[in-house]
């Protein structure tokens, strides 16, 4: 088999073509939204939102049976939005520390999800599916939902770009310019929640955080401006998705884990050689200053 | 999504603070503060660490609601104004954020642009002329972490210019700057005609030689007026307690501030 054949071979199968399209769409989306997660130090919050979707998935699963993925999607979306608003509200109360509040919500919701699902016999197989996703099982309906909701998220980020930038970089300036800071914060949480739900099929809940922050952080190491960070992050994430698909196809590795490992590989390379913030640059600089 | 900015009342002072108490939670950082600032005046806000200087600036900017008393900016509560520029202490800024100097100055235009609008050529021109005025035009496309301390402060002054701010509140802009950078920032502030400027600072020497008036603070207001009227040995003794040494010389009294000393304990 020649190299070209090896590259083209997987895409003789329609499910592989769907997996590729889903991967590329979710990849671009998660790197763009993930940039805000990284810059606003919301990694823990993002992880909490991802895990808190489980009870919604479980309710959809119980109500409509395991075959109906559409019901799961809507239940997951509803739960994700409610959870993100709830977490946003809880963390502003100030009676307990924000990360403690988020931790309690996160663990509580995840347990509730498992408790609900455990009432069904043989739930472990389905649980694994929700936790780790399976991009190879993406249907054309899944892709339509990713395109509609993912497109919506990107449109909102485009429209409110400069407001999100100020609220992320300098909330104090946003307040003195009398921008509705709290509203933008909630809007951003809803965008993260939506991204989590549309990525559910391809990535799964457990590895969601890695998909949000690893490519975006790679962009952060290389870029001077936010649009550059988003563009590099998207490119890294899409490339990881494609390479991960091949690994999954040829070696039978779980697709979600394969994609994350490739993305982390890119991150480590950039961490070493980044011209501005990389290790090698830092070592060279300190050697120069020392000598 | 955003309210209309408040109009300025004709003849009202730029800032009027009356019997203000402010702070976080139950702890009052400031109490019973009253003073007025005229439009275009430069006021130094001095006092020891923990005197409430930052709290006062944040309250005037509308970032911290007063617990009692009231603040008026051009006759209206600060919350309605978009003419106030607040420059935080350097340690409060994320200097690794992926934005350029130009981006940060352009942020000052946000409310003038409005939601859904991109910067127009006129806005870019204004941002460039603001950068030119503070001498940062050649560094416009640098990531902000690559600026020196003095350049960072000048960037924020440029942002205030782009915002068309009428009141600039700066929190410890001179902390950690070398003498050359300090005088650069001071001369920029002195050139801003018609802009009301409040600067929280430690350095009483800068307060004396470069500001119209000084407000001396230590939880309450200890004095406000021309530097020579306010910074007298008895008032300074009340502000700094035993952290201040006074030495009589032929020219008058030499005041030595012990910066390693905190609080008012002997």
How would you describe this protein?
The complex is a heterodimer of chains A (291) and B (266). Chain A has helices at 3-8, 14-39, 43-52, 54-64, 69-90, 98-117, 123-132, 140-159, 161-169, 171-176, 181-203, 208-222, 226-251, 255-273, 279-290. Chain A is mainly α. Chain A has a single domain, classed as Orthogonal Bundle (ABC transporter involved in vitamin B12 uptake, BtuC), CATH 1.10.3470. In chain A, α3 (43-52) crosses α5 (69-90), α4 (54-64) runs parallel beside α6 and α12 (208-222) crosses α13. In chain A, 47% of the residues are buried. In chain B, a hairpin with a 1-residue loop joins β8 (213-218) and β9. Chain B starts with 14 loop residues before the first strand and ends in a 9-residue tail after the last strand. Chain B has two domains: 1-83 and 166-240, P-loop containing nucleotide triphosphate hydrolases (Rossmann fold, 3-Layer(aba) Sandwich), CATH 3.40.50; 94-164, no CATH class. Chain B contains nine helices and eleven strands. In chain B, α2 packs parallel to α5, α4 crosses α5 (149-162) and α5 runs parallel beside α6 (179-191). In chain B, strands 5-6-7-3-8-9 form a six-stranded mixed β-sheet, sandwiched between helices. Chain B has a three-stranded antiparallel β-sheet with strand order 2-1-4, with helices on one face. In chain B, strands 10-11 form a two-stranded antiparallel ribbon. Chain B is an alpha/beta fold. The radius of gyration of chain B is 19 Å and the shape is globular. The interface between A and B is medium-sized, with 27 and 36 residues.
